[in-house]
């Protein structure tokens, strides 16, 4: 679930989700807490949200990457550095790419890494639907980015 636009959620609503993927603002709202841009605060919010859900939380952090909190894991993923033009649809692209990889039996880590590249590619263009890359473009971007 992507809680956007964000509202405070009940523990029952939170527990019904296998994956909750808010951004750094949405996580505070979901928990009914103050919004913060401090990483440690966001990390603690993600840990609290994961303890309620007992499943998986991924907080997207824009140019600062993402944070995964699972039952036994806390891991920060770095962003892919690009010349960002427009952040529109980056979160939607991240979630779609993440879900695609899980549907193709990739690990959570592989799915987050792929989603990170896909969303990075999205912000290099203006607009919403027109900026979302195809699977082929994401794969080409990953190959070319890793050659640098």
Task: Explain what the structure shows.
The chain is of the alpha+beta class. The protein is built from six helices and four strands; from the N terminus they run αβααβββααα. Strands 1-2-3-4 form a four-stranded mixed sheet, sandwiched between helices. A hairpin with a 4-residue loop joins strand 3 and strand 4. Helix 4 packs antiparallel against helix 5 and helix 5 packs across helix 6. It is globular, with a radius of gyration of 15 Å. It starts with 10 loop residues before the first helix and ends with a helix. 34% of the residues are buried.
For the terminal residues, how far apart are their CA atoms? 34 Å
Oligomerization state: single chain
In total, how many beta strands? 4
Low-confidence stretches: none
Q: Numbering strands along the chain, what is their spatial order in the largest sheet? A: 1-2-3-4
State the helicity in percent bands.
40-55%
Largest sheet: 4 strands, mixed
Our Rg estimate from Cα atoms comes to 15 Å
Identify the overall geometry: globular
Strand content: 5-15%
Mean pLDDT score: 96
Q: Order of helices and strands, N to C? A: HEHHEEEHHH
The tally of helices reads 6
């Amino acid at each position: 679930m992507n809680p956007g636009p964000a509202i405070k959620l009940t523990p029952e609503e939170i527990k019904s989700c296998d994956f909750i993927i808010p951004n750094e603002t949405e996580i505070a709202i979901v928990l009914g807490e103050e919004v913060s841009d401090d990483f440690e605060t966001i990390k603690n919010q993600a840990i609290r949200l994961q303890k309620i859900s007992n499943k998986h939380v991924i907080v997207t952090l824009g140019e600062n990457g993402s944070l995964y909190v699972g039952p036994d894991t806390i891991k920060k993923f770095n962003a892919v550095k690009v010349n960002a033009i427009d952040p529109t649809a980056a979160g939607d692209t991240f979630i779609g790419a993440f879900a695609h990889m899980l549907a193709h039996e990739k690990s959570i880590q592989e799915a987050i890494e792929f989603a990170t590249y896909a969303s990075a590619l999205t912000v290099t263009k203006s607009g919403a639907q027109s900026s979302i890359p195809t699977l082929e473009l994401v794969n080409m971007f990953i190959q070319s980015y890793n050659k640098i």
